[in-house]
Fold this protein.
Amino acid sequence: MGLPSLLTDSRAIAAVAAAVLLSVVLATRTTRTSSHGALPLPPGPKPLPLIGNLLDMPKQRPWVGFAEMAQTYGPVISLSVLGKRIIVLNSVETLVEGLGKRELAGRPHLVVAGELMDFNRTMVLVPDGPEHKAHRRLSHIALNPSAVQAFTKIQTESIRRCIDRLATTPDYDKEIRVAVARSIVEMVYGIKIEGIDDPFVVCADTVFEALGDALVPGRYLADVIPMLKLIPSWFPGAHFKREAAQVRKELDTMCDYPFGLVKEAMASGTAPYSFVSSLLDGVKSGSIEGVPEEFISNVAGTLYGGGVDTTYSTILTFLLAVSINPRVQAKAQEEIDRVIGKERLPVFEDRVLLPYVRAVVQEAMRFYPTAPVGVARLATKDTVIGGYFVPKDSVVIPNAWAVSRDPGSSGLPADEFHPERFLNAGPPPDPSVYAFGVGRRSCVGQTVGENFVFIMIASLLASYTILPAQDEEGRDIKPKLAWLDTTLTRPEPFGCRFVPRA
Ligand code: HEM
């Protein structure tokens, strides 16, 4: 749901009315002059009095609407909505410049999700400051490109299990999701899960679903009128406080329960190597100092939510694209057969030997980025992007989808699946540069995610020819190239068949 769709329900109308009043108070913030000499604000559609650009906000798939605006106003756009300044970055240059700034390491403050549900304890929402810095340091120790080599075995095993089952399962997407969830839970805690009905997975999925819901603009009035958080939970209409309290409890369980299991296993000497056990070992040996244990459990708890849907969605985009693209499959399979042979499945170390498969992976990341408008940042100080003034407290949106439409000099249409675009001269921007964010809040799971996606895609191509589903008469059902209108998107449900290769 985009911002203007708020106007369709009464709760939202109340929210907008209240926000209009609030905007009068905040108006000074959006109109004040640049502290960076005479630099102007970025251009954008002309705002109306009080509501600003509320009516200009794209109704659906905001990434598409913002990209269209960029055609008129250029890569950096400025909008003012109900007193809040929003800056959208639509080119690789401005996205990299902007997100790389120290002043953009903040996240927008969310009353319900951040404070009441307590997602501010997790790495994705924790405000910029010493705690976030400690979370990053911990993640870097255990997930830097050389440390994650320790996890490729876990990833490969989980993928092999999934590949074996795909020939017979009617639920291919469930199988892929289990493979991703399994490898992340085992990597983080050393715990093996069987399926998506595992209690940890159920709890984590509930928690992150609640977060996704709370992030829908206008979902909670308290995000517009923060003082509502002070009303008691029993008060009529305070159901948001009861809902938030429930989520908070589940978030505590999600972070603390598996963490406790690792500690018990370590005490009895049975804990396998994992993200958590390696960091707890570091604390015990003194190589990691000044970090409360609870930071480790908070970071660990975030990794499931940060990693599962993003990785799963990228694999689904790959499957959707290649199911109607036999040419690309045949070319990739020829490369795999020639370089690796048919006796074994590809492993991570084969990556350097498979340039076409690598380009398929890049193209899957580019074709429809799973976080099309990234994760919003907050400017914690005045700054400058692309030569424009960006005031403190602006919300900055990196439009990764707009960057993914940049054709480079290949001339190949952006909405067609052509891995060749990354092998020709003048390639488009590399998705590994923009699809994971940049700078102090960039994705800490980038290497581990990219490794998983490579092994999974190479193994799928080596094992199966992927075709569209068929109707009762055996005719192919051409899938729709359509993605959900959600902040973390994935293809709309589609059918496909996995035909084992000889
Ligand atoms: C294809 C896979 C993935 C994609 C496309 C992706 C994308 C992103 C993006 C766009 C951000 C926001 C970055 C920013 O604000 O600049 C992010 C943040 C994050 N990602 Fe990923 N991600 C992926 C996989 C993973 C995995 C596998 C993990 C964990 C193992 C993970 C954990 C996180 C965390 C914890 C953050 C928050 C970082 C912070 O706020 O400091 N991600 N990711």
Notes: Residues 1-32 have pLDDT under 50 and may be disordered. The chain is about 45% helix and 5% strand. The CA atoms of residues 168 and 498 lie 9 Å apart.
